[in-house]
Amino acid sequence: MLAQAGIYEKAKAPTKSNGAAHLPLIRSSATFVATFTPPDYLIDGILQRRFIYSLTGQTGAGKTALMLLLAASVALGRPIGDRNVEKGRALYLAGENPADVQMRWIAMAQQYDFEIDEIDVNFIPGVFKISEAMEQLHDEVEAIGGITSVLVDTSSAYNEGDDENNNKQAGDHARLLRSLTELPGGPCVIVACHPTKNASYSNLLPRGAAPSSMKWTVI
Fold this sequence. Notes:
Layout: H1 2-10, E1 15-17, E2 20-22, H2 29-34, E3 41-43, E4 47-48, E5 52-56, H3 63-76, E6 90-94, H4 98-112, E7 121-125, H5 130-143, E8 149-153, H6 167-178, E9 188-193, E10 215-218
Parallel strand pairs: 5-9, 5-10, 6-7, 6-8, 8-9
Antiparallel strand pairs: 1-2, 3-4
Helix pairs in contact: 3-4
């Protein structure tokens, strides 16, 4: 009944105001909840699918190491501490330092006991313009069967603006990164971010303007 009510109301003819057609603004209770999607956690109680999160830490605090651990844990379906992790396919955008990521990944395979040629983690080395490559990225993700997580290393590397303190550019950047949640599979997107210069551990928000398009999560 809920879905039927929603379909019925969406199918109503648009109203007109001053000669211009537009969709109704008011929704019934049934229509309002008809599109609700229950939480789908990648990591129980922490990270949800189809959401974007920032992971911020000081230089040398271990952002890349934690991002690679997340990628491996997702692909292997291994819990992190007492939190269960949904097994799936990970995509790692190694934009800031691909050679460093390669070395770390080789070491992680040895220490975390997995085979590099078997684990279901995919990488994109080097920086590219996400805005220009989105269609190709969508097609390639679809071709490998969809993904459950995207790890972006780092936010600054993929920022297509020229002033990270510009509110509009920061908002555009956040929305662009958020569009990665719409890739096939409905992935959770985790973005490694740098804090402000000389930031303390009690103030680890990402540097620059801070649009509300992301959930801010700090380490």
